[in-house]
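Write out the bound-state structure for flavin mononucleotide.
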Amino acid sequence: MSIDFCGLQLPHRIVNGSGTFDAIAARRVFGEELTSNFPFAAYVSKTITIEPRQGNPAPRLWEASAGLINSIGLPNKGLLGYLREDLPRLVDILTGGERQVPLITNVMGSTAEEISRLLEACGQRDEIAALELNVSCPNVKTGLDIGADPYQLEQVVRAVRPSTTKPLIVKLTPNTADVALCALAAQEGGADAVSLINTLRATALAPPGAHGGERGRWLGAGTGGLSGPAIRVVALAQVSAVAARVEIPVIGMGGVRSPADARELIDVGATLVGVGTESFRDPAAAGRIAAGLQAMRNG
Ligand SMILES: Cc1cc2nc3c(=O)[nH]c(=O)nc-3n(C[C@H](O)[C@H](O)[C@H](O)COP(=O)(O)O)c2cc1C
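---
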């Protein structure tokens, strides 16, 4: 079975959520086992920005009842560092012999000009199959809240769209009044696909006696984003609402832990399904979910 996604022919429907599976680190740990059995149909990089970023102050993680709050803050080597250092390593992991796993590079900028530069530079590289634009990360104070406003989102997507001929996926924010309107705005602006959901804005107070951050909050940045099982039903509602409104393909994610979870997102209209937080608990999760899904009818 082959799945068509924006012209890419994929062997199955499971991809990773950006920032939740470090393929370079995984290769160091798992070696050839990772490359010969790469679990994802396409690999999404963590978010890349123009300048290198250190990320947020510690603590950066809080385990909630049925999920994880993170305020990692998008640490990355910046555009040049990514292209020079990470891209060749990723290509080495994703391609070779029979292996041809498409690479989707996820980018974020705080202005249309910055985003255009990122899309143009990455779009010129043959090694990169598609681009994902993160307009939704709630962890970065200076980040793109524009993803929460349909009008601004459409303007930005329209402005940056000509910067690349590669498929452009817009990763929507769930922290908005009407996610389907935002998805429509992305489509109108020229997006080839949308992905959702990113993390839901969340916070945690420092336990009594622990050294708290700002106003007794646990996380160094004060707030973070919730992911994992707790958000699965929110993802189901939002993916369903979006898929009913747009004509472009949808990548659905949020709290997926099993083939049945993935199947539900497909049943409400997702073409591909992202596995995120579950990969931290079990690095083999995506392979297990992809195999289980394929064993189901119309997987
Ligand atoms: C530790 C961590 C880091 C993440 N980093 C990014 C990122 O760099 N860019 C991005 O667009 N989304 C990022 N996300 C969001 C995920 O890609 C995904 O949208 C979200 O976690 C929901 O899926 P899940 O519940 O399966 O984890 C991150 C999530 C986590 C938990």
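---
The domain at 3-56+74-211+228-295 is CATH 3.20.20.70 (TIM Barrel).
The longest helix spans residues 78-94.
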